[in-house]
Amino acid sequence: MRGGVPRRGRDRRAAVLLPPGGAARFLGAAPGVAVIGGGIAGLSAATALAERGARVTLYESGTGLGGRLAGWPVRLADGSGATMSRGFHAFFRQYYNLRGLVRRVDPGLTTLTPLPDYPLRHGSGLYDSFARVPRTPPLSALGFVALSPAFGWGDLFRMNPRAALPLLDVRVPEVYARLDRTSARDFLTRIRFPEAAHHLAFEVFSRSFFADPRELSAAELVLMFHIYFLGSSEGLLFDVPDEPFPQALWEPLGRYLEGHGVRVRTGTAVERVAPVSGAGLDVTAGGRTRRHDAVVLALDTGGLTEVVAASPGLGDAGWRARIARLRTAPPFLVSRLWLDRPVARDRPGFLGTSGYGPLDNVSVLERWEGEAARWSRRGGGSVVELHAYAVDPGADRAAVQAEVVAQLRRVYPETGDARLVDVRHEWRADCPLFPVGGYPDRPGVRTPDPRVVVAGDLVRTGLPVALMERAATSGFLAANALLEGWGVRGQTLWTVPRAGRSAALRALARLGTD
User: What Cα–Cα distance (Å) separates residue 225 from each residue in 122, 241, 321, 500?
Assistant: First the structure.
């Protein structure tokens, strides 16, 4: 316990963010809130609001909940049913607030299965693993140097120590003031990060933001280094759901929300939001307009820009202009292959790749997902998923699809003779881009109108969070902002340490700003 609040995770230096004080829940008439978007951010906001008695209506344009982690049923060529999705997502142990959301329906997190390693493989033959790397900094960094074939002691001593100092004490938002106008690629060049490790490790991580390292803000890369490596003792290993996303996560959470009175309206896209002076906001969806006391805009980049553009009364001119300048990351491909024979038994459940053309990772789903394992047992085959991030928008998509399958056969040669029972290729281009110099345009949780808040992985939170955890955290923060205005206590949040772990290293890092 710390100050009466139970600690999340194993990191004793994890930071707790207590909400402002207030009533435990609404007494008497409760306000009505429209949460627009049923992804992780919207579900987090809806959960915090509904648990305190707010009257919540959750609008989601898709047919199911989950947003970019949604799933949908498909019928395979062999007649069996399956759940298609946008693929593999790692639930890192640092994702305190996302995991707290899942605990609402699975207190023991039994639906999350740990994978034993986070292996990385380069086309040159280099192979890295994090299974044996110590989790607690600075032993994590020293262990990586000692065990990695791509980064040795000589590479460590050849680095530019002064340029690398920002890695030792990462804080938000200071890291953006220092590094947002530098690309991830240029930062790695400046600190003389070894080229082999650059391709094998940092490029794999940076592309998890669906962006080429030349386009990605170095501030995001350095923040990621703090969250997953040098700032946290949770380590780089992670968990994955043991069934497809809808069955494991979103359907139970949807039932939980409905049990708290939430009106869940899937298949209902919001067209516009119109503030009414002194009387709430009118939300038009599916051709019908309903009035609410407050609105949570929990949309992806494209959805947010569209709704704001169609709602001229939202915000002020400066805020609207910043929203209009937001950009979406390049397209990415998720290919899922149902093979008539298995991949080798010693293949990992997940493998990050570099140097294999457009292929960024390979997952063997039956290693952890029940649905895929049952299909595999019935026919003796494998369900393999391939990802290609940051694809050139002008690329021939059919050629990219063919190339990732060809690269799979290079990575796992035993798949070369396998017959495709079925294959599904899913293209998307709806993830936020964190471009060089783009931080000032990203919205914060609060807007010029206190009745309107924003949530999502594109949002500035002022906390060391990223990806799915930023989505969950921002959703809770959005709910907290509304609850504070109504005098109700919000959700307690957790993050990795909000500064470098060592006082000596923090002092050393300050030399880089002198």
Answer: 20, 24, 31, 11
Q: Are 387 and 360 in contact (CB under 8 A)?
A: yes
CATH number for the domain formed by residue range(s) 15-67+244-326+442-495: 3.50.50.60
Domains 15-67+244-326+442-495 and 69-93+112-116+238-243+329-428 fall in the same CATH topology? no
Across the strands, what pairs with 283? 273, 290
Q: Quick one: pLDDT at residue 478? A: 98
Domain ranges for the chain: 15-67+244-326+442-495, 69-93+112-116+238-243+329-428, 131-236
Residue found by looking up tokens 């309206």 in the block: 265
Q: Does domain 69-93+112-116+238-243+329-428 have CATH number 3.30.950?
A: no
- In 10 A of CB 255, how many CB atoms? 11
| Percent over 70 (pLDDT), the chain | 86
* CA pair distance 100, 109, nearest whole angstrom: 9
**What gap in Å lies between CA 47 and CA 325, rounded to an integer?**
30
Going from the C-alpha of 351 to that of each of 216, 293, 432, the distances in angstroms are: 23, 47, 24
Residue 59 to residue 271: CA distance in whole angstroms: 11
Main-chain dihedrals φ then ψ at residue 387, nearest 5 degrees = -120, 140
Mean pLDDT score, 120-125: 86
- Our CA angle for 48, 54, 56, nearest 5°, is 85
- What does the alpha-carbon distance between residue 307 and residue 76 come to, in Å, rounded to a whole number? 36
CA 223 to CA 231: how far, in whole Å?
9
Contact 406, 421 (CB under 8 A): no
* Under 8 Å between Cβ of 287 and 314: no
Number of other CB atoms surrounding residue 511 within 10 Å: 11
Q: Is the pTM value of this prediction over 0.85?
A: yes
Separation between Cα atoms, residue 118 and residue 454, nearest integer Å = 33
Q: Are 354 and 206 in contact (CB under 8 A)?
A: no
Q: Helix, strand or coil for residue 311?
A: coil
Q: Are 400 and 358 in contact (CB under 8 A)?
A: yes
Condensed to tens digits (0 to 9), the pLDDT of residues 41-100 reads 999 999 999 999 999 999 999 999 999 999 999 999 999 999 999 989 999 999 999 999
Greatest pairwise CA separation for the chain in angstroms? 68
Element (H, E) at 71: strand 71-75
**Which tokens belong to 159?**
């680095």
Count of CA atoms in the C-beta half-sphere (13 A) of 228 = 23
